[in-house]
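Sharing a chain and its predicted structure for anyone who wants a worked example. Both blocks are below, sequence first, tokens second.
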Amino acid sequence: MSWITMLLSFFLINILIRHPYILVAVVLIYIFRDRIPSPSAYFRRQKAFTRLRQAVSVNPYDATARRDLGMVLLDKGMPRDALENFIEALKKDKDSAELNHFAGLSYLRTGNAEKAVEHLLRSVEIEPRHRYGDSYLYLGEAYLALNRPEDALDSLKTFLSINSSGIEGLYSYAKALAALGRKEEARKAIEDGVRYHKANPSFRRKRDWRWYVKLKALRRGM
């Protein structure tokens, strides 16, 4: 070990002894590294938000800018503002599977499951495999919110036939099965979801960790 390395090690140990919370923070960051959003992704999103908001202010009838702004707003956790943009864009292209998909998702996230079903059904009617079947996923979630587990199960089966390892889909599928009293099948779906999550690459684990936590909570509650 060189004297420079020894000196740096001494200063580091001294800092950690004086400020142990730094060590705790480092350990927590390491443990939850899959769940921490990327700073670069945050700044890219903010830049896109500013650019698209300006484009919409200049031309409120730009359906493409409205769509893209709505997607950024959804990503920022602002579904009501996102919905406004998708509805405006739909006025110019009511037969767009993508716009109906995102309008349905926005309605779902604002608590209006009935309107969500309307738009998501329209999306799958136009393009059933749009976004790898995600419209069926959110349709299943909307049916669950409306206490229609049999309809939810049908939609989620279709989603899983397209995306068999979708963690969010397996969580909703397990919920629908549990609501119908099919507990053993629900447990199998949960175990499949947990197994898929652990086998997934790190970028997917980072994206899906909330559903992994929900799967484990659902398992404990059964």
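Comments welcome. The two ends are 55 Å apart (CA to CA).
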